[in-house]
Protein 1
Amino acid sequence: MNTRREFLRTGLTLGAAFSLTDMGGLFAADAQSAAPGAGPRPVLVAVRDGDRVAMLDKAIAELGGMGAFVKKGQSVVVKPNIGWDVPPERAANTHPSIVKRLVEMCFEAGAASVSVFDNTCDQWQKCYATSGIGEAAREAGATMVNGKDESLYREVQIPGGRQLKSAKVHGLVLDSDVFINVPVLKHHGGATMSAAMKNLMGVVWDRGFYHSNDLHQTITDFLTLRKPTLNVLDAYHPMVRNGPRGKSADDCIEMRTLLASADIVALDSAATKLLGHPEPGVIGHVRLGDEMGLGVMDLKRVDVRRIKLA
Amino acid sequence: MHSPWWKRARVLVALAMLAGLSAALLDFRGLVPHRLGHALASVQLVPAALGAAAGLTLSVIALLAVLALTLALGRVYCSAICPLGIFQDIVSRLARLVGPKKRFLRHAKPLSWLRYGVLGATLLAVLAGWSGVALALLDPYSNYGRIASDLFRPVGVLLNNGLVGVAEAFGWMWLYRVEPHWAGAGALAVPAVALTVVVVLSAWRGRLYCNTLCPVGTFLGVIARRAAWRIEIDQDACRKCGACLKACKAQCIDLRTGEIDASRCVGCFNCVPVCTDGGIGLAWKWRRGAGKTSAPAASAVTPSDAGRRAFIGASTLALTAAAGVAGVVVAEAGRRRRGQGRGPQDQGIVFGPVCPPGSKSVERFLDVCTACHLCVSACPTGVLRPASLEYGWAGLTKPQMDFSKSFCNFDCNRCGEVCPEGAILPLALAEKKTTQLGVARFRRRMCIVHEAGTACGACAEHCPTGAVHMVPFRDGLTIPQVEPEQCIGCGACEYACPVRPARAIRVEALPVHGRAIVVKDKPAESPAPVDDFPF
């Protein structure tokens, strides 16, 4: 039942029934990221000083449990950062233990299928293997899907985009009921910071287009097509220089932090602080995300729940 | 020595050899252990000789073993070890199955002027320092390697991709689509011509290719003439029924004289079990004359024989001399060409071609590599592609790093591990990571950041060494900067650069590979408070 073909087909049917933006409204969590001033403040959970899995468990519980995001029988796509052929201690990719636990939680909440993929920078089989994510996700029962197969991407219009008017987007992102974004926090030479918004470059086929057509604007434009249902940021051991690939584990520091929110802009705004930026607005895509009403950058208008586990 | 097991053993070894090598060459998913391909390729004669010259222990052993085997049993190599020979056996067998009528190959006279001419020309070319071209074009293993890697592998990929749809319908996730890597037209022409020649000749006349155009076959034939055991017809038992003749694909059995031409016999042992009278089999012939296996005929040299030999001798000499001179001339032309016009130029900088890590220099690489494409098949990123004329004629089909399509994985040294001939020497991973194949050249005026005033950094993003990094530019933007001494020329930056048609950062090839410096940074410090939330 839970084959790729199967839910591509299901997704097509669903897609015909609802427009993508309307579909987001089906989920309770989405209400939390509503436009500023209109409704409740978005919730951002920030957890410190536990191991990765304990912090994730705590954060999701604080957000109302995975059941708030995943309903029984739904298809889920989990998008970690698996961009590089480097081992977990280099922290260029999301840590496999976080991906594994997320997949388990989705199944516990009744997900019919969980798929994991990334349009990697290094060769995808090597990235999936060396990052440890391939094995970890499969152990938890997820399907690792090829992110380097162009035939799995579909050209879609992005009417809300300023620079990115259309893109080839992975079918899993277009068709899955639930879209979970699980990036790792990193310094980024080009975009200054790579967190939740930047991680979504890995769901489109042509990353080169982003780079040559105003990187920050195109990153932001994608969110007008589909915002993740939930974002979880791995900031346990973030890379603070030489990003996004890094040269060695010396580029990373121990921070033991994890952020979770349905509001991608709020989450990235907090992430800029973790990397020591004085103002979130210095990161172009965070500022644009707020400006285009895709989330809340001003943390004063966010319900930040700070939790220390030790 | 009339046991049917000679043939059975030969067939078993041959099938295992062809299957193993083909698996390594066709492998587009990295499923075949790379040591298998390396081991099976290392026992091939030309790679073994080249590898031995490069000081690879396995190659020395393999070379001695192949020579000893030939001195013992004749050209068994051609039937059990050479993939091109085994492939031809399959083609001729299929041709007989689908052919219009049951026919068999008669005994034929050797085309000695041709085979010794090719061998002589090859040896002269090697002496003239032109082994890189002669061996690349004529080595049977390398020809099979190119046919399998450049022609069969992409076809395999297309079949795989067709099956993915079916597998998906059944929910099987172990099949996935792969991009078929077709070589450029120039590079593809070489295996296409080789495949055509080999298929036509083997379908028409069995091992004609091996006994005329293949210098390895002819060379081993010279040794096989003096082999310790040779196939012999027992004149007392033979009824001249012709069963052995029908089984022979080398056309080397002359029933009228009872002679078997040991220099052309490929040691397949097909003739042994078909004889119901035990009339043909291996016999101890050590130090009993060369080439002739039948005593009565050995002494009978007729005047016409003498004339023919003189003619063959003279024509061979003339042909080899001509080929040798031609070889030297072409070699010199090639050297000049290599010195000057390497690769495409862009704004006065010579960018390509870049040869793989472990090959040391373009010149050495072109001299040693016979373009078997085992590395092309083994390269996990597909950055190694057969060159058309990027290296010049001397480098036709030899692998080059194509950064327009991919880049060299930092944590990979696979090409050196599989190369059977030392053209790409094996490098420890730590050494490979500092081996400088070229240096990235950044053209600031072409860069997106400079041109459009928007952020990019795709090149620095992909750089594994930190040689390409971002430095402050105007309006809070950052722009790439290259530290040439830290660059290894892996091409990740060139691959990632979104600027077209010409990219804003490209790798300038180093004709002789260098050594990059590793700058060790101090452990990073936290940019934010470490014990509390900074928000």
Protein 2
Amino acid sequence: MAFKITEKELKHLAELARIEIKSSEKEKLAKDLGKIIGYFEELKSLNTKNVLPMSGGTFLENIFQEKDFSQKRLSGEKSAEAFPERQDNFLKTPPVFE
Amino acid sequence: MHLHDLTIKKFHEGLLNKEFSVLEIVQSFFKCIKDKDEEIGAYLTLNEEEAIKAAEKVDLAIAKNEEIDILAGVPLAIKDNILIENLPATAASKILKNYIASYDATVIKKLKKAGSVFLGKTNLDEFAMGSSNENSAFKIVHNPYDLKRVPGGSSGGSAAAVASHMAIAALGSDTGGSIRQPAHFCGVVGLKPTYGAVSRFGLMAMASSLDQIGPITKTAEDAALLFNQIKGIDPFDATSAKFDYAGDLLNPDLAKIKKLKIGLPKEYFEKGLDKNVSQGMEEAIKRLKTLGLKFKNISLPHTSYALSCYYIIMPAEVSTNLARFEGIRYSRINADRIRTNADNISVNQRSYQRKSALSEIYFRQRGQGFGQEAKRRIILGTFVLSAGYYDAYYSQAQKVRRLVKEDFDRAFDSSAGGVDVILTPVAPTSAFKINEKTSDPLAMYLSDILTIPVNLAGLPAISLPVKKYCLGGKELPVGFQLIGKHFQEADILGIGQYYERIED
């Protein structure tokens, strides 16, 4: 059973996700999402009243971070190399204020 | 020595016996890649200069009679979502087209320490999202056994490179089957380790509670060798775990292996399997019986819910993990000055004026940078996490995830006569045709139905070819999956190592 995603809802979701959706993509995207979400309906038939949600991969336990860990981190200079544009000691971004 | 015959083990023996040098072999691999990869499409970047330097270093150590690691000089292919310092790491996405990694992933650091050689970075579905490698933003990968078919995904480039002898072995990543399914489609071995066994530091996160890095190789023995090197706790990955594997990984004891009880879950065999897949399962079981292994029919009752559960949890994590790609850091597409058009946006039924040029950059960069499948999953993840839908979808999926895991706990419970290992098919079909499933995302998702439960439960699993397949032969490869208990990779790798020694 397909779930109905309206154009308004899709627009709202795209705003939340900070993604521009072209008008040519909209119809197919809404239809595909509706079909996928419709497939999820089967989960509603399961009784999970006394089941605890499982969020992690396997067992996790609290441990202390090892000593001197912070010194092993990537240097600022090295991290900055991964930035697309630089000028002198500055990271260059497109203008974000008007 | 022909490249076709090389496994890690044979390569190492050949080096010690001075049958060839590392450099010779590395150069033959590059020649093979240049001859063949145009029609396969397995590699996105080649690392020839550095690979030759690394090869010469190992040759020098051999010439000086220094002791070398078993992985020294081994020519490997690395999936392009794993970082190697100073090499591009695109994850097959336009949004990272110009990104150069500034550090080594922990697995790469460990392999460099052993002296391994990296031939290049392999193609994948964008950000590891897909089951056919058709979601790569740059090019598709063709299955070496039939060029009209897909190699599987998302580690399709890595599996195709190993299958077509363009690398001795490779690394991939597996979130819902991305190592095992392409291994099955390409007739090679793929191991998805226990969640936490291998550090994910330097692997681009897709769904952090499910992702694992693992080897794709020609033999189970090679998979054990690679896994043995990359495993271990890492302070840079808080989910990595400490576990003492002792010597069981590399030298499995047949007497111990013979005592393992194998479960056959009925839910995995009733899913409309293709004829060649069900025949493959019968053949694998028959061969395993010759080793003296015992089988038992079992049930994992929540199996059919795992797909829904996964396609809620995974996109939720994708939508948060991929938020970091905004076109400001890492890589940028035509970043001209962007003028805002101050239209109204609506959030929670209230209308706001969109003022910032910054958000305009985000929308445009992400809109242009992400492909269809990435967008679909980000929006889907945003939906299942949004107010009003969270409880019905995300929270319910997390509960079902526990039910799926508890199915396995019960099946493996030794105090209740449980089994040690579970055998299943890897996917309902062999490699499907290019474009067969691209228009219907749900049909594509269904090809992961038999690999997903393992990731939800955090278990280790291996895909092993039923028999040796010949490139150029008429037959499409079929693999079978062995699922082990948490941190019991030794069991499934051990069975695999004895399985491949069985003579036809």
